[in-house]
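Q: Structure tokens for this one, please.
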Amino acid sequence: MTTGQFNTWAELRRVSDRLSAHQVAQLETYARLLADWNARLNLTGFSLENDIRLALDRLVLEPILAAAFVTRDIPTLVDIGSGSGSPAVPLLVAAPWLELTMIESRQRKSVFLREAVRATGMRATVVTARAEDVAASRNGDPFSAASLRGLRLDDGTVSAARSLISPGAPLFYFDSTAADPPHPSGLPEPEFKQFEELPGFRLAIYRLF
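A: Here is the predicted structure, written as tokens:
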């Protein structure tokens, strides 16, 4: 992916109307780094070579739109199964007050996440472990929210998220309208957010008690 390709997409999606020039530059750095590393590590199933517009829509624009619901009363966020860095990295770009922790069990993907944080000049913590293990061993204050994409929202994942965040805090689940939303036992019905820019995208917000 070239700078020209990113800029063409950014102009089409009016990214500069939503973010500062510095934030747009951070997103380009992240997207180009992801395209480079993805060729070796298979970080995401979206193609940053052949279908750049779709990949950037889902990996970058989607979290930017979702950031409207990450308000300043959510100071800390834990992203579970961070993998490619989406939604976590673009969310942090759009909501830079966040104290972000990314949990990724695979070492090589954790290396990419640390490089993405370094290259974009942001501050975030990357933990190489399973979310269940982090939840079982964590002694600090609970997080204000959690985000999740690309992992099955099953009872085990929900249990880990519930152990990591405050009671009643939101779990932002990045979903597609192509399938019925997951509904693990013990979870209330989610609140759905959809956007004109991405008709196939659905953000499901679960409240974990």
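A few notes: The chain has one domain: 61-208. The mean pLDDT is 92.
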